[in-house]
Design a protein that fits this description.
CATH class of the largest domain: Alpha Beta
Distance between the termini: 50 Å
CATH architecture of the largest domain: 3-Layer(aba) Sandwich
Enzyme class: oxidoreductase
Helix content: 25-40%
EC number: 1.6.2.4
Mean pLDDT: 87
Largest sheet: 7 strands, mixed
Number of helices: 23
Cofactor: FAD; FMN
Protein name: NADPH--hemoprotein reductase
CATH topology of the largest domain: Rossmann fold
Shape: globular
Number of strands: 26
Low-confidence stretches: 1-64, 238-246, 355-360
Bound molecules: flavin-adenine dinucleotide, flavin mononucleotide, 2-acetamido-2-deoxy-beta-D-glucopyranose
GO molecular function, one term: flavin adenine dinucleotide binding
Amino acid sequence: MHDISLELLGRNLSAPSLGLASVVLVVLSLALFFFQKKVSLKSSALADTATSLLQKTPVAASVPSADKSKVTFLYGTQTGTAERFAKQLKSDLQEQYGDTHEFMVEDIEDYDHEELFPKEQLVFLFLATYGDGDPTDSAIKFHKWITEAAKATTEDGAEQSLTGVRFSIFGLGNKQYEHFAAMGKRVNECMLQLGAKEVAPRGDGDDDEDIDEDFEKWKELLLAKVEEQKIMGGEVSRASTEVKRISLPAYEVQLLAGADPKPTLNMHMMASGNGTAPQSPFLARVSTARELHRPDSERSCFHLEVDMTGSAASYEAGDHVGIYVENSADIVEETCRRLQHSPETVLQFRHPAGNPDRLGTCPSGTVTLRTALAQWADVLSPMRKAAFQKFAECGKEVGGAEGERLRRLAGPEGKEEFAAFVQQPQRCLLEVMQAFPSVHPPLGVFFGCIASRLQPRFYSLSSGPGVNPKSLHVTCAVVNDTVPTGRIHKGVGSCWLACKQPGDRLPSFVRRSAFRLPRQLDVPIVMIGPGTGLAPFRGFMQQRAWLHKKSGKELGPAHLFFGCRKREHDFIYQEELEQWKEEGIISHLHLAFSRAGPEKDYVQHKLKQEAAAVWALIQPEAKGYVYVCGDAKHMAKDVHRELVEMARLACGGSASQGEAALQKLVDLGRYQRDVW
Ligand SMILES: Cc1cc2nc3c(=O)[nH]c(=O)nc-3n(C[C@H](O)[C@H](O)[C@H](O)COP(=O)(O)OP(=O)(O)OC[C@H]3O[C@@H](n4cnc5c(N)ncnc54)[C@H](O)[C@@H]3O)c2cc1C
Ligand SMILES: Cc1cc2nc3c(=O)[nH]c(=O)nc-3n(C[C@H](O)[C@H](O)[C@H](O)COP(=O)(O)O)c2cc1C
Ligand SMILES: *[C@@H]1O[C@H](CO)[C@@H](O)[C@H](O)[C@H]1NC(C)=O
Ligand SMILES: *[C@@H]1O[C@H](CO)[C@@H](O)[C@H](O)[C@H]1NC(C)=O
C-alpha cells in the first residue's frame, strides 16, 4: 500500500493535525465546487448539492417543493465563464430566497427548450458569443429555435409563446470583435418579440476589459429589481442571508507518497475517443511536419498533417480540428516551484464527499503533478478578478507588505490598483504567483477554482476530404509575442505543436463549421485570407481541383486575395498556389506584400483595386460567394469596411445601404467568415 496523506492546506498533514482531518473533510464537502471549464465537466449537480447542504441548516420551515416556484438559470458557454456566472447568481438568489423557490442551473445544450422554456416563470440566461457573432456550439439548437419562433411571430403573426416568462440575460463577449455580445442581444430581442418580460435590462460583459465587474454591476441591478418588484416574494430570508459561504471550491487531492506510486493516468486517457467531439478526442498521429516560412523570415508558421485513421471522424473543406495542447516543461516547472510541490508528486483527485458521482470528470486515476499542470492548468492567460480573489483567499495568513497588498488588490478599495497591476498589463496567473511568493494555494483549490482549464486550440483545416479523407492538414503560425508585462509569451499551443515530429500523437477532434464552398463548381467565389487565413482556402482549392478532375465539370471564377509581409519570407504554399493558378483552379491571384515596399499593402487595398470586378460577381443579384478568413480584430473589420464601401459605390447610396446589401448576402449564406 502507498502511504496516503491528505493534502488540505497546501502541505501534507503532520501527525497532530490528522485529528482535524475529518473535520476539514466535512468543510471540504460543503465547499461550493465548480470547475470553470466546460470541456468535459458538467458540474451543476455537484454545485447544487453543495449549496443545498448549506441552505438546509438555517431554514426553519421549509416549504414543500411542490409549492415552490421554479427559477431557471441556463448557460451557453465554451470556456466556462457563462457557467460560473450562472452559478454565482443562483447561489446569491438562493441565499436570499432559498426557502421559497427551487433553483435549477443547466447547460443550455442539455435543456429541453421546446418543452420547458414556454413554461418557465423566471429564467436567467448567460450566453457567450463565438465565431462571428454566433452562438456557442452548445446553444446552436436553442438559438435556431428561438430565432425561428420569433420570426414566426413577427412575420407570420404566430401567437407569442413566452408571454408567461420573466427573464433577464447576461451576454458575454469581447468588444474587439465586430459583433459584440451578439448572441445575448439577439436572444433578448427574440424573447421580447415572443412576449416575455424583462426583469432587468440585459447586461453585456466585455472580456477585453473586466467581465467580472460587468457581471457584478448587472447582478446588483437585477437583485434590486427582483426585490423592488417582489418578483420572488417580498420577504428576503433573514436566516438564509446569515449563512456564510464556506471555504473555496476545491477538489480533494491526495498525495500518494512512499514506494513507487505509479501514475496510472495520462490525463488524455480520454483520448481513446473517436475524434468527433471535444469529449471524445482521438489520439491522432502526426505524419508530416514542416516549416512554411523561408529561412530569412523572422517568424515561423508550420504545416502539420494529422492522421485520423482509426477514428470515426470525417470532415468537409472549411471544418476545424480541435487539439488538446500542453504547457511547456519550463512553465510547468516554474508553476511547481510556486506551488511548492515536486513535479513528480503523484496525485489523486476526488470530488468532495457527498457529491453525486455523475460528474466522473476529474481524472479518476493517479497522475503526476507535472502531467496535471501540463495538460490541465491554464497559467498564462490574463488573470480574471474572480480567480485572483480566490488566490488571495489562500494568502489570508500572509503578513507584511505582501499580505496587505494582496488583500488590497482583492478588495473593493484596490480596484484601480488591480486594474493597473493585473488587468491592463494582462498579468497571468503564473506572474501573479511570482509577484506573491508567499502564497501557495493548496492543489485542490488551485485546480478547483484558481487555474482555469487549458482549452483545446482550433485550426481551420487546410486540406480537402477528396484528396485527404483521413489526413487533416493544419497551418499554424507560431505565437512569440512580447506582452505588456514585458514577458515573451510563447504561444502555448502553437509552440507545443511546433515541436511535433512524425509519429507523435495529438488528442484531436473534428469540429464542424458552416464555412462551405457553394454546391456547384461553376459558381464564382472570392476568397480573402492573408497569413494563416489562407488555410481553409487551401482546403477549398484542394477540394475544387479534386471535384473538377472527378466530374470534368467546368469551374467558375475563383479570386484569391492573399497577403503576407514579403514574397521571399512568408509567402506560404507559394508553389501550390501558382500551380493552381496555372491549372485554372484559381482564376485570379491577388497578392499584397505589406513590407515589400515603402507603402503598406494589405488585402483590403487589393480588394479596393478590384472592387468593380469583385462586386459584379458577388452582388446580391449575382450568384457568387465571398469568404473571409483569419484575424478578426483587424483584418476582417478592414475587409468588411471595404466590402461595404464597394456595395455603397455600386448602389450609389449611403453606407447603411451598403451595409444592408452585405447583410442580404449574409442572409443568403453568400458572405461567410471564419475569423478568430
Ligand atoms: C475557429 C478557429 C480557427 C483557427 N484557425 C487557425 C489556423 O488555421 N491557423 C492558426 O495559426 N491559428 C488558428 N486559430 C488560432 C489558434 O486556435 C490559436 O489561438 C493560436 O494557435 C494561438 O494559440 P497559442 O496557444 O499558441 O497562443 P496563446 O498562448 O493562446 O496566446 C494567444 C494570444 O494571446 C496573447 N496572450 C496570451 N496570454 C497573454 C497574456 N498573459 N498577456 C498578454 N497577451 C497574452 C498572445 O500574445 C497571443 O497573441 C484559429 C482559432 C479559431 C477559434
Ligand atoms: C474564437 C473566438 C471568437 C469570439 N467571437 C466573439 C464575437 O464574435 N463577439 C463577441 O462579443 N465575443 C466573441 N468572443 C469572446 C467570448 O464571447 C468571450 O471571451 C466570453 O467571455 C467567453 O465566454 P465563455 O467562457 O462562457 O465561453 C470570441 C472568443 C473566441 C475565443
Ligand atoms: C463517437 O463517440 C461519441 C461518444 O463517445 C458518440 O456519442 C458518437 O455517437 C460516436 N460517433 C461515431 C460516429 O461513432
Ligand atoms: C521569439 O522572439 C524573440 C524576440 O522577440 C526572439 O529573440 C526569439 O528568437 C523568438 N523565438 C522563436 C522561437 O521564434
